[in-house]
## 1
Amino acid sequence: MLILAFDTATDVATCALVDDGNTLGEGAGPPRRLLESVNRILEAVDVEPGELGGLVVGRGPGSFTGLRMGLAAARSLALALDVKVAGVSTLDALAAGAPGALPVIDARRREVFTLIDGEPVAISPDRLGSALLQGRICVGDGAVRYRDVLEAGGAEIPPDESELHVPRASVHARLARGFGPAEEVEPIYVRAPDADRVLGR
């Protein structure tokens, strides 16, 4: 099946066109330019949008605004193209892109999103502790931002420019299961959006 996958949960939005597990093209850039990146990939490999068999979208956690952009794009494209959608955790995709690594996404507010016992959490990086970090490779923009804290806890962080820190959409396509209606794909927020917190919702 020909799949278009994308993730806008972090500052670097990624997209990929994957056909039966083979990556035909990939792109990366600011979330606001996601559709431009998608267009470039489709044109580069001479694929018409109507040929797509399914969509895969990153569910986060990550930037609230970025997540909403990605989900809105997935829902609009699914409606226009009459295709099913699957959602994939951005943390799971990061981890799958670097097997054995701990995914760490910058959550702002001096916190990171990561996985503890397989569950997504928002936590201060200095609370992760050496039991979790010792000898562990950490990947993601949160690992880059809090490199000093994580390395002090015993973690290993790849160089800042490493591709391992980017949630590649081609990995999302490989992880995708259970395609269905776009409206059934829910974001993983972990904590309330800033606006709700300010308004006391």
## 2
Amino acid sequence: MLIRDRLASGKPSISFEFFPPKSDEAAAQLERTIAELSALEPAFVSVTYGAGGSTREKTLEIVSRIRQQAGIEAMAHLTCVGATREEIGGVLGRLTDAGVTNILALRGDPPKGETKFRPVENGFFYANELVSFIRDRHGAGLSVGGAAYPETHIECADAATDLANLKRKVEAGVDFLITQLFFDNRRYWDFCERARAAGIRAPIIPGIMPLTSAGQAGRFGASLPDGLAGEIDRRRHDPAAIAQLGVAHATAQSIDLLRGGAPGVHFYTLNRSTATKDVFTELRVAGLA
């Protein structure tokens, strides 16, 4: 199913994000996670794309296998990093040949060791260029998502410029948006209000990550509500208490978002199932999943 059609149904879309493993141990962990979370029957799962296309083959393999063997709708991340138009066209062809019809189109981060993004010759500089390319090649046959940043993209000078960039991406053919993770729902609601005022009508799926350690709190560039920051500090030396707090906060966030009209929730799992499964269970008890 195309994700845009699922979102149009009005049923809350609960989805999970995975990333390709870099070791045999990590691969085994991912297999366990996919098996456990697949049982929850998510609307879809997504698989990230390594910097510079470093995990391109693994992404292709995992997203194809999830769709064909696990019977779950899968979305492949696709970035502009280190790839020409011809190479990206080839990747799209392989995905569609495998039955993958949902793509998250991203510019991507600069390769490790570089501070600025530089496209390769005959490549793309911006995500909206990639979106236009996908639409030119595949029309409405693919459902294309894009990234959104409630707290503004790290490379963008201000929120207004960031929103203008987002509008160009949507106008290029994006069907839906998934936000960067956040811990304060006011950031999401304020962002949605600004996006709608700017004429952006695409569904905006909030991205949520249950904290599992104190160190994660400052690692992803998302601000913390004062109350959550204080609770993390008090539990800093108790990993189990941090994990419990993370599940409780992510659950409260998700319930508020879904009851407030968000089209779904996209969970950043970090290839672990326990915290996400606990949150999902609470959403099901609340009749929201």
